């Protein structure tokens, strides 16, 4: 079950990276295009470069947060592991069903 979760998290991260790049670039392109059209300036290239730079920065932050999130998963306190485990996983590991007496 944990493998499926990791695969889905990775898939969603890839989708989120693509959408983030598309939206940041598209918004900056649209702003530059509209400014060029209505003001008669030549700012489109500036906004294209700004969109590319902001897209890369956003993707970097997404990936960094994903990597830190996976690293922090191992550092969870014991109560959090017991509280948020799925039914398929045993939070205490093998042999946890034994009577402690």
Average pLDDT score: 80
Give me the secondary-structure category.
mainly alpha
Task: Write down how many β-strands occur, each being a DSSP E stretch of 2 or more residues.
Answer: 0
Portion of residues in helices?
Answer: over 70%
Question: TL;DR of this structure?
Answer:
With 101 residues, the protein is mostly helical. It has helices at 2-39, 44-73, 78-83. α1 (2-39) runs antiparallel to α2 (44-73).
Care to describe what's here?
This protein has helices at residues 2-39, 44-73, 78-83. It is mainly α. Helix 1 packs antiparallel against helix 2 (44-73). The protein has three helices and no strands.
Features:
101 residues; mainly alpha; elongated
Topology:
Layout: H1 2-39, H2 44-73, H3 78-83
Helix pairs in contact: 1-2
């Amino acid at each position: 079950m944990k493998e499926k979760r990791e695969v889905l998290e990775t898939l969603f991260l890839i989708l989120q990276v693509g959408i983030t790049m598309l939206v940041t670039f598209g918004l900056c392109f649209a702003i530059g295009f509209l400014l060029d059209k209505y003001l008669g300036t030549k700012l489109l290239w500036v906004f294209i470069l700004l969109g590319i730079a902001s897209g890369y920065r956003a993707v970097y932050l997404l990936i960094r947060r994903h990597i830190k999130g996976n690293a922090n998963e191992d550092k969870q306190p014991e109560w959090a592991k017991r509280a948020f485990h799925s039914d398929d996983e045993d939070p205490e590991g093998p042999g946890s069903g034994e009577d402690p007496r």
